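To the structural biology subgroup,

Please find below the input and predicted structure for Rhodanese-like domain-containing protein, which we are adding to the shared reference set this quarter. The sequence is reproduced verbatim from the submission form. If anyone notices a discrepancy with their own records, reply to this email rather than editing the shared folder directly, so we keep one authoritative version.
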Amino acid sequence: MTTYMPTLSRALAMVLCWMCMASGPAQAQLTALVAVEPTARKAAHSILRSSAETGLSKAAGQSVALTTSEDLADVMRATRSAGHDIFIGPAQVAASALQRGYELVGATQKSDTYLLVGLPPINDVAAMKGRRLYLPQQDSLYTYMARGMLNEAGLSFQDLRAVQYEKFPQAGLTALILGTADATVVREDDWAEWSAVHQGAARVLATSQPVPGGFSVVVKKDLPADVRSRLAQWFGASSYASGLPPVVVRSEAVEYRRVAELGLFTPTSLPGVSRVTAREAQTLQAQGATLVDTRTEKEFKTKRIRGAVFAAYVEKSLKDVAFNAAQDDFQALDKLQNLDKNQPVIFACNGAECWKSYKAAKVAAAKGFKSVYWLRGGLPEWDTTGLPTEGG
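Predicted structure (tokenized):
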């Protein structure tokens, strides 16, 4: 007995240990967030929270807690920090999350087109300078569309006399009639209905590319594949029972990328500067152009375009086409040896989301450089194209 009991105890302990390891740690609760656009309040209020939580929990095989928010600025911060396992919201919420470890389930409506419309005296977007713009809250999809259409014309919200933020997008058309605004952004369907009644009262200044409509749903990529699959099936076939419109459209990824660019990325063009692709930049470099890397020294030493020279653009100004260059420091450009203002120069940084090369190219052109090129895609485009790099 004296030898049997310890042996039995050890065996029992081993069995219990094996059982604990087999069962694994207790599963953590998943969280889902419904982000509400000003125009989607009615659809959001129809969602039965308890029913949605029950359905999602059953699909996921573990508890899911659902919350709703109308504070889009807070929601966007949550996407950047991957603060929830599931996001259900307008296209800009999904677009932000898709860059940060999420995958797309789909959208509840077909894609929409947005229009920037203005009073008849305004002939084009460039003529919006010094005018008044009516928009919903700052992080609404309408505001993203407006920023993008202004950016393409080389304008910023800072170039306008006033930007009025209100709750209801359709009220912007009323503001045009009342003379309290000069322009607004509306969905194409709303414009068609309104302009048929108010013929000649306003004109279309710019038209967006298609944007995913209704709610878009994304889930974290690091969730188990079977969990993601079951959640996708629930959103596509069973969510209607909880008041959430079913996901019926699988919008193109490029549509979400466009939305992300409108809110976060540099403009697609820069007046006075030639935008080039990675291969075009390589050709120019081979012909004697200087390729300037404007990133930090640490980034430059870690990995860079082969043959690039280092000139950090120390950025403190706003990421905006109307940035104040006086707030930034680009003395490094003046210290580059053998850099001739009559020779072509190419500026690059960390891709379309990085403003350093955009600002550097604009500053260089203002300083009298004759042939200024901008590699908007920067090192990421160069690398994915398969062109040579160095460092590290």
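Summary notes: Residues 4-23 form the longest helix (20 residues). The chain has three domains: 30-109+213-264, 114-207, 274-390.

Regards,
Lab coordination
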